[in-house]
Amino acid sequence: MAREFDLVIKALAERYPAHLVQLVRGMAVEKVERMEKEAVAVERESDILLKVMENGYEYLMLLEVQTKAEREMPRRLLEYTAMQHREFKKPVYPVVLNLTGRLQEERYSFDCLDLTVVTFNFRTINLADLPGEHLLHHAPVGIIPLVPLMRHEFPAEEILARCVERIAEAPVEWQADLYLGLAVFSSLRFTREVILKVIEVSKMETSPLFDGIREKWIDQGIRQGIQQGIQQGIQDTILDALEENIGRCPEGLVNSLRAIRDIDTLKLLHRRAVKAKTIDEFMQALNEAVRKNN
Q1: Is pLDDT above 80 for 207?
Q2: pLDDT single digits (tens) 231-243
Q3: Cα–Cα distance between 279 and 274 in angstroms, integer?
Q4: 148 CB contacts (<8 Å, ≥6 apart)?
Q5: pLDDT tens, 147-182?
């Protein structure tokens, strides 16, 4: 798993272990605590190990988080489940959490001659199959950064905006990590341009985790700001040219023009605006540009 996703999912597991267990089990449990990975002989980067008390029953939950479904995963999960069981001598509940993609398998087995040597069962959770709208309103706050990767019927910016509203209800000291998690995981589905329209860099840069990925998000934010400044500058120049040639522009024209962000298209419209003698003449060029951008 890429470093930024690994850093953030581990941080969420550290702060909200019970929330992750609730996502898997569908209910709250009495007690959850993070286990120390250093106790295991072979360290792996993509796993989370939790000790859970559920209805008086204590077990370990091994959570393997993948940015995309992998067919080789069951064998790796079997290996690590066996290692944890041997090390801690406790029952282990193995889970695969796919951030994107789908893996339907929940069983792995193999035979040798007349023996069934291994029959290994595990849980598979594909975020793409979960009802995002329901969990947005009812899941604990530690799950909200994962909600944009779930099933939705709404546009990207609306999903992100609703997630931001939920995070704003959390204690202030939790918010930076949650905003950062929301931005990082959303980048698996949406462009950074879309994300940074909804989540300002200032909301997440106070998170200790931000230092590890600062350049990627700060640079993107700066580039986006420069791009938006250029776009607005050309749009303003177009409106000035139109007002000089044909008088005040109708509001509908202004709104349509502001919606166009492609620099080359705006440059073309500027040339048309300089030569336009009537509003209809320019509107024909503008409508054609809108169609192409859509």
Answers
A1: yes
A2: 777 888 888 888 8
A3: 12
A4: 132, 156, 159, 160, 163, 182, 185, 186, 189, 190
A5: 999 999 888 889 999 999 999 999 999 999 999 999
Separation CA 222–CA 135 (nearest Å): 33
Placement of tokens 């702060």 in the chain: 15
Provide the token pair at 127.
């975020």
State how far the Cα of 200 lies from the Cα of 180, in Å rounded to an integer: 10
pTM: 0.70
Residue 250 has pLDDT above 60, yes or no: yes
**Placement of tokens 């899941």 in the chain:** 139
